[in-house]
Amino acid sequence: MLELKNWNGIIRYENGSWKHNNETRASPVKINQNKNRLLVNALKRKIDPPPFVEHRVILCGNARLESFPEEESEYVIK
Predict the structure, then answer these.
(1) Residue 74, φ and ψ in degrees, nearest 5
(2) Are the beta carbons of 67 and 12 closer than 8 angstroms?
(3) Which H/E stretch holds residue 71?
(4) d(Cα 60, Cα 12) in Å, to the nearest integer?
(5) How much is the pLDDT for 6?
(6) How many CB atoms lie within 10 A of CB 70?
(7) Is 7 left (phi over 0), alpha (psi -120 to 50) or beta?
(8) Eight-class DSSP state of 50
(9) What is the pLDDT of residues 40-77, one digit of tens each?
(10) Using an 8 Å Cβ cutoff, are 12 and 19 in contact?
């Protein structure tokens, strides 16, 4: 499951949120992780065994990450 972000500028990780150009946003990694969990649970009810589904956030713009912990940055592709 992919979340595309066409963001430019600096993105900082602060207190579990992303701060993009001084605007605080919910972490796209956490949001996508929740969507992924919901999808997998729905698939489990229909397919046995369910397929393996991963989640990633893809930065399409020229954004730069600052102060990101590994548990967030490992799910972000630049």
Answers:
(1) -70, -15
(2) yes
(3) helix 70-73
(4) 16
(5) 96
(6) 7
(7) beta
(8) P
(9) 999 999 998 889 999 999 999 999 999 999 999 999 99
(10) yes
